[in-house]
Q: What sequence folds into this?
C-alpha cells in the first residue's frame, strides 16, 4: 500500500523502527515530515458546538467515551484572556450536545486554571477522567500535574492528585477488567497502574527516567483486535523560526498495543481535517464505527467517524519493546512540597522545542 503526501505525490510506506541500540526509542531518522502525512478517510464529520460556549471562550480538545450505549464528550472551553478552562460534559444526540458545564465538588481547588484536557473513561460503570492541572509549588515554580476525576451528573465528585515533582501531561487511560492503567509514554513504552486504595499510580512517576519523547499522547485506549488502540501525535515546527509553535503541524499516528501493554505497533502519519494544530484527545467504538474526538487550532472541537478498515491501512508492522517501569528498583519517595493551586504572579512562556513550562492553551 502507498500513501500520498499533501500535494498528492505518491511515496512508499515508511516503517518506524524501534532501535534496540537506543533502548527501544524510535529512530528519528525514520520519522515522517508533515508533508508525508495522508488525510485520514472520514465518513462523517461534525462540530461540537453549543451557544453557551461563547461566554467562556473557545472549544477545544474534547474527551470521548461510550457509556450506557451513548456517546459522551467533554469539551474543554478555554478563555484566551486568562487561560482559564471550563468543562462541558454532554451526550451526543443526532450531532447535538445535551449537557451542562461541570461543577467542581471535589474539594481539591480552587485550581489556577481549571481541569484541562479531560480524557474520559468508564470505571466501575461510572464516568471518570484523567486531566491536567496547573500547580504552584512552595518554591514558586509552576508545573503541570495529572489528576484523576470521578464524575457524577454535572459534578466532579472526587479528585486524586498524582504525586510528581516534574511536569506531567497527556497520560492515556485504559480500563481492563475494572483495573485502571495509564500509558505514561509511547516512546519508550511505559505504563502505570492506579492503586485505588492509595489513589496513586504505581510505580511513582518520579522513579521513571525522564525522556524527551517524540510521540506524545494522545487519546484514551479502546479494545482493538486482541489488544488496544490509541492515537498519539508528534509536532513539527515549520517556517523560518523552528522554535515557534505559531506555524506548527501536528501529525497523528494510530498505535496498537498488546493486551498486556507489553508491545506496540505504530501506524503511518495522518491528519484528519486541518494541516496545523490538530489534537486528538478521544477515541471510541460506536455502532461498528470508530469515533475520533479532536480539536482544531485551539478554537474548535470535532468528532470524525471512520471505518475501522482505515486503521488497518495505517498500521505499520514494527513492534516496540517496552521499558518495564515496574521492574525499576524501588526508591523512597520524598514528600512533595505543599501545593497551592491558586495562580501566583506572571506565568512563564512555554516553548516545547526549547524547554520550559507547560502551556495554558492545550497545545502540548
A:
Amino acid at each position: 500500500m502507498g500513501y500520498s503526501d499533501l500535494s498528492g505525490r505518491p511515496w512508499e510506506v515508511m516503517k518506524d523502527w524501534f532501535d534496540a541500540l537506543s533502548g527501544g526509542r524510535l529512530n528519528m531518522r525514520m520519522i515522517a515530515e508533515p508533508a508525508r502525512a495522508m488525510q485520514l478517510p472520514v465518513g462523517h464529520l461534525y462540530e461540537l458546538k453549543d451557544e453557551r460556549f461563547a461566554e467562556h471562550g473557545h472549544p477545544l480538545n474534547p474527551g470521548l467515551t461510550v457509556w450506557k450505549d451513548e456517546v459522551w464528550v467533554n469539551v474543554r472551553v478555554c478563555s484566551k484572556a486568562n487561560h482559564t478552562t471550563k468543562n462541558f460534559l454532554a451526550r451526543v444526540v443526532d450531532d447535538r450536545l445535551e449537557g451542562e458545564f461541570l461543577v467542581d465538588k471535589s474539594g481539591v481547588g480552587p485550581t489556577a486554571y481549571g481541569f484541562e484536557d479531560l480524557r474520559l473513561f468508564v470505571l466501575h460503570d461510572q464516568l471518570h477522567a484523567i486531566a491536567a492541572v496547573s500547580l504552584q509549588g512552595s518554591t514558586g515554580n509552576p508545573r503541570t500535574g495529572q489528576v484523576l476525576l470521578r464524575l457524577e451528573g454535572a459534578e466532579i465528585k472526587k479528585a486524586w492528585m498524582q504525586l510528581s515533582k516534574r511536569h506531567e501531561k497527556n497520560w492515556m487511560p485504559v480500563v481492563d477488567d475494572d483495573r485502571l492503567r495509564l500509558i505514561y509514554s509511547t516512546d519508550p513504552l511505559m505504563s502505570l497502574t492506579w492503586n485505588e486504595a492509595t489513589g496513586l499510580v504505581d510505580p511513582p512517576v518520579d522513579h521513571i527516567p525522564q525522556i524527551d519523547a517524540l510521540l506524545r499522547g494522545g487519546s484514551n485506549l479502546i479494545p482493538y483486535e486482541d489488544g488496544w488502540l490509541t492515537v498519539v501525535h508528534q509536532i513539527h515546527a515549520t517556517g523560518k523560526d523552528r522554535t515557534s509553535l505559531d506555524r506548527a503541524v501536528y501529525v497523528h499516528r494510530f498505535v496498537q498495543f498488546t493486551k498486556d501493554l507489553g508491545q506496540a505497533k505504530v501506524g503511518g502519519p495522518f491528519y484528519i481535517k486541518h494541516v496545523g494544530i490538530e489534537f486528538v484527545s478521544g477515541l471510541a467504538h460506536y455502532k461498528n464505527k470508530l469515533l475520533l474526538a479532536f480539536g482544531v487550532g485551539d478554537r474548535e472541537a470535532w468528532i470524525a467517524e471512520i471505518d475501522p478498515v482505515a486503521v488497518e491501512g495505517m498500521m505499520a508492522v514494527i513492534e516496540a519493546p517496552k521499558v518495564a517501569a515496574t521492574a525499576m528498583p524501588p526508591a523512597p519517595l520524598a514528600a512533595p512540597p505543599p501545593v497551592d493551586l491558586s495562580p501566583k504572579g506572571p506565568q512563564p512562556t512555554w516553548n516545547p522545542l526549547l524547554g520550559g513550562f507547560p502551556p495554558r492553551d492545550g497545545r502540548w
The longest strand covers residues 126-136. The radius of gyration is 19 Å. The first helix runs from residue 309 to 314. Residues 1-32, 317-364 have pLDDT under 50 and may be disordered.
